[in-house]
Write a structure and sequence with these properties.
two-stranded antiparallel ribbon, two-stranded antiparallel sheet, At3g27390-like, mainly alpha, 8 helices
Length: 274
Amino acid sequence: MKTNQEKKKLGDDDNNDLRIKRESSLNMKLVSEQSRTLRKAIQQYKPVQIWDWLFKSCEVNGRILLRDGLINIKDVEECIKTGNCKKLGIKLPAWSILQCLLISAKSDSSGLVISDDLELTRINSPRDKVFEWFIGPLLIIKEQIKKLQLDVNEEISLRKLVMEHKNEKPDDWDNSDFPSSDNVRKAQLQAIIRRLQGIVASMSRIPTFRRRIRNLVKILYIEAIQASASSNHIGGITQHIHNKNSSAGTKDVKDRDGTVNVSAEKKPDIGDMV
């Protein structure tokens, strides 16, 4: 028969075993949760997500460039009718990517900042040869841009330089608004722009890219037509008001309350003055 001391010891052992099991279970649960969190953090993007980001960026930038006159309806029509889509199919995507690189270079990101809360790195980029070939050079270009330490005015001028100027040699920017006169700096930026346009040109061979570009051109064409119609409508209203004001100078206009305003050209009678 067991003594009270032996029973107490056995009870303590059982409690210790139970505590160890609980701690082990808790540790396993924490490890499992951490693993799920880690897997979520490094979840690979799918190719379609990258395409969506790129062409949404192109659409937004295309609308802005249309508004600012750096793309016009003739550019869109030329792309549709003749197939000459360099401005929309090469320069516009290159500018959109360059914008991403400028933002990424200013951040502490090790990858590409493609939105406020999304970062594309070598780890989470799609496991696809096309995108592995695409992401690597962009990360290198981002570091080159970071070393250049562009100021705000230089960044602003790049948009027009990408869309409207040649980028073969520093002299091509002589009549531009680029604030720096440093030819070495110009040559470095021109090399970056040429590299980006070359990357986009290679991507344009991919059927998905070509299909997306066609859809983008249709969207911009509708946008350009609407902008043109709106401009003509505003111009028509302005002309109508101008004509109305001009005609008001030659005849009296009756107010709603029945009083008559004397036209500007009709001199008032001195006898009518108080």
